[in-house]
Amino acid sequence: MDSTLPAVAEELLKEIKKAFQETSHVPDDLLLGLKFVFGPSAVPALDLVDQRSVTRVMSPSGRTAYQVLGSSGKLYTCYSSCHFCTCPAFGFTVLQKSESLLCKHILAVYLSQAMGTCQELTVSEEQLTSILLAEEEDEG
């Protein structure tokens, strides 16, 4: 995980990773912390993780993006390296209104990383470029 989140959020995700590695579940106190730090994004993000909706898309050169199948059935592309998601909620509640640290999709990426539950997909450089360009076209 990159240090784009506040220290308390980074530490919480580290604790979740440690607990999950040791016991294969997340204790209630850390779930409460998740709800406290990330607010209304926490429970829907955990649902996405439970549904294994997060896929790490990698190219041979090492470029990586994440795709999250949202609850609406739409695929969103997330970039953990710069803490960004292509969903409308990220643009509105995170970027415009600053009401939340992140959306449920990027939180699901961080949680999937911590719990080791990301699905993996290796694609060619051209395929990854197409995925990234398709997102730009959807926005425009």
UniProtKB/TrEMBL annotation:
GO MF annotation list: zinc ion binding
Top-level taxon in the UniProt lineage: Eukaryota
Q: What is this protein called?
A: Zinc finger SWIM domain-containing protein 7
* Keyword terms, alphabetized: Metal-binding, Zinc, Zinc-finger
The major lineage groups are: Eukaryota, Metazoa, Chordata, Craniata, Vertebrata
Instruction: Please give the InterPro entries that the UniProt record associates with this protein.
Output: Znf_SWIM
Keyword field contains Zinc: yes
GO cellular component, alphabetical, reads: Shu complex
One GO term of the biological process aspect: double-strand break repair via homologous recombination
Using the record's annotation, list all stretches that form the SWIM-type domain: 76-114
Q: Write one Pfam family the protein is assigned to.
A: SWIM
